[in-house]
Amino acid sequence: MYNLQELWKQAEEDSLAFDMESHLYESKILFGCKIVKDRYSGEIELFNTARLGDYYVKLSEEELDIFKLYGLQQGVYWLMMTNILRKIEGVNKKIRSEVNGKNNFRKIQTLKNYRERLIKLFHHQTKQFKERNYVTKEIDLGSSVQN
Fold first, then answer.
1. Are 63 and 79 in contact (CB under 8 A)?
2. Cβ contact 82:144 at 8 Å
3. DSSP 142
4. pLDDT 10s digits, 8-59
5. Residue 52, strand partner residues
6. Does residue 116 share a domain with residue 137?
7. Residues 53 and 82 occupy one common structural domain
8. The domain containing residue 137 runs over which residues?
């Protein structure tokens, strides 16, 4: 098990993590995960940058538990893959809705092409993470995808 301080240290040591600083906090962004450390209180929080909205969404306790259990690199891998799977699920719902609704051929083809790009991205990212030795244990991705 890792604590938040250890996750922060892993982010500091990761050469791929992008630094962002202000007078209030330090942060690192790595593959859709932002880890923030408050300069005054020392409090550390993790955010999902891939969720839609005007601001980043703080990780749920369940998501945070994955990071604490497997570490930053594998947690980031898990988060990125579940984000892609969530997008694929959304596209599948839109395709079903369009087929059962207006049945616009162009829109259906556009959605299918987007789904295909997401699937290719999923496989490409899996390969990249394994080449960098980010993934050393298999993490169940299927049960964790929620809208």
1. yes
2. yes
3. G
4. 999 999 998 999 999 999 999 998 999 999 999 999 999 999 987 778 999 9
5. none
6. yes
7. no
8. 72-141
